[in-house]
């Protein structure tokens, strides 16, 4: 049975279905690279940064203001968006990170939730949503259209997918082949012992905060273009899908997080043509994360019970 016939069984023509898969791959790539940013920070500091989406949204709004209300060149506004994420994350990590260093993971996470709510409140105050007014932050790459395997994709979607894969590869090599990466892995294993052995804990954690923040800014820059609108509320809650991707990777595996993010994006996309279930697409991150966690916990139970025999 060929692919076209297989899709016809479900009442969806393959040609009609392609745009949904393309968008799903692109959105899934944003979820994936965001999840990778969360995992890297968690492995180095033990912090689940739920302000990830809010930081990216704030950077996107700054870029929007610079482009539409000043004479700032577009490339500089985009760079400021990405850099803003890194600087804000770094400021939080340097100023508040040490205070939370020895607290429970839940307390650390709630600290970043406070940051998310503060940013969301500022954005709602300075850039309220409502009425017929809508904000757009298109990237020049979205004007370039290509045909890939019979599907129409713009350059933004291609770059997003390639960037997610490339970032995962680069970070994997970085963690294995550099002194700073080795120090991050050491911190993930035991912070106290690493400090005793001379690892510059504060410096390593600051690097993790800054690097993760740059990914925040990149996600905040790309997502408004993919969604065709700059909705800072939707960008803020990007962290839900990113966190689900990180959980699929068990907060450790970068490649598992990458595949998890892409799977979430594709799952949300393939439900779109079906009117009866399209309203439940937002549940895809939770469902996939729960299934993955149950699968991994089942595998662990089988392994332990097998060892007991």
The CATH class is identified as Mainly Alpha
Instruction: Let me know the number of strands.
Output: 2
In CATH terms, what is the architecture?
Orthogonal Bundle
Rg is 20 Å
Q: Please, what is the average pLDDT? A: 85
Strand content is under 5%
Structure classification: mainly alpha
Q: Which blocks of ≥5 consecutive residues have pLDDT under 50?
A: 1-10, 301-305
Q: How many domains make up the coordinates?
A: 1
Looking at the structure, the CATH topology is ABC transporter involved in vitamin B12 uptake, BtuC
Helix content: over 70%
Strand order of the largest sheet: 1-2
What is the first-to-last residue Cα distance?
A: 45 Å
Describe the model:
This protein is an all-alpha fold and 309 residues long. It has one domain: ABC transporter involved in vitamin B12 uptake, BtuC (Orthogonal Bundle). The protein contains 14 helices and 2 strands; from the N terminus they run H-H-H-H-H-H-E-E-H-H-H-H-H-H-H-H. It has a two-stranded antiparallel sheet. Strand 1 and strand 2 form a beta hairpin. It is globular.
